Automatic annotation (TrEMBL):
It holds the Pfam family YdjM. The chain crosses the membrane at residues 86-105, 117-135, 147-168, 189-206. Keywords: Membrane, Transmembrane, Transmembrane helix. This is Membrane-bound metal-dependent hydrolase. It comes from Thiorhodococcus drewsii AZ1. InterPro entries: YdjM-like. The lineage of its organism: Bacteria, Pseudomonadati, Pseudomonadota, Gammaproteobacteria, Chromatiales. It comes from the Bacteria. The keyword Transmembrane helix applies.
């Protein structure tokens, strides 16, 4: 699979392209682009959350703990004293960083259900709900936040699959097909649990009709978005052109 630095670099490229494309198409204001870009990058690192020994995963849980701690304490500033807020913040952080992390690592397997379409859906819907319920974002902004997390997540899984191809020895590695799969074929209970989580998150999510209406682009918006996509594809081909030519020779596309 690709290493952390590769996932980070490609995640930055994909998130920048998606954010700029949405902005050029007039779907997001310039003031939101930095936050959406950050969400895309975070999403590109999330699939490796089930890797118990990864240093980035430990860092991710630290950031997640701090973020949730702030999200839970900031609405309470009018009800508690500074010392009480500090104790609440520390308690939430420790629960997430050490308690939730320990439980999570015991019940997850690397390249399991988190490396699947269900993982993309769960994290995207979770981001949408967090943006709407905790950060008081309007439905359109909340769904766009979920979209960016999903784009980053999908980029990570695609990259893992690409690195499962051994171009020099013209063979597919055993890991091929374990990243970008509909669900975990080896652990049906995990897949059913993740599906239940997705259903619950979809039920809690804000109404998406207004957001879908905004995505119904007119011809001018579509042309601007398509031009942005073409520019990003050209950049990717410039970087990975030789790699893709080898892949085409290995796996004929018919």
């Amino acid at each position: 699979m690709a290493n952390f630095q590769t996932h980070l670099n490609v995640g930055i490229l994909a998130s920048a392209g998606a954010t700029l494309g949405l902005h050029v198409a007039g779907l997001v204001p310039g003031s939101d682009t930095l936050a959406l870009f950050a969400l895309g990058v975070i999403g590109s690192l999330l699939p490796d959350i089930d890797s118990d020994t990864s240093k980035p995963v430990n860092g991710l849980f630290s950031v997640l703990g701090a973020g949730l701690a702030f999200a839970m304490t900031l609405p309470l500033t009018d009800r508690f004293q500074p010392l009480e807020l500090t104790l609440i913040w520390v308690g939430v952080f420790l629960c997430v960083r050490y308690g939730f992390f320990e439980i999570f690592t015991r019940f997850t397997v690397h390249r399991g259900v988190w490396h699947s379409w269900l993982g993309i859906a769960a994290t995207s819907l979770a981001a949408t709900n967090i943006a709407y319920w905790m950060w008081d974002q309007p439905p359109e902004s909340a769904w766009t936040a979920g979209l960016m997390v999903g784009i980053g997540y999908f980029t990570h899984l695609c990259l893992d699959e690409l690195f499962s191809v051994d171009l020099f020895n013209s063979r597919l590695k055993r890991s091929f097909g374990t990243a970008l799969k509909p669900f975990s074929f080896d652990d049906h209970w995990s897949s059913l649990s993740m599906l239940a989580v997705c259903v619950a998150l979809a039920w809690m999510a804000p109404d998406a009709h207004s957001w879908m209406d905004r995505l119904d682009l007119d011809s001018a918006q579509f042309d601007r978005l398509a031009e942005g996509v073409r520019e990003q594809v050209s950049a990717v081909r410039l970087v990975f052109g030789d790699w893709f030519s080898r892949l085409r020779d290995l796996i004929p596309l018919g």
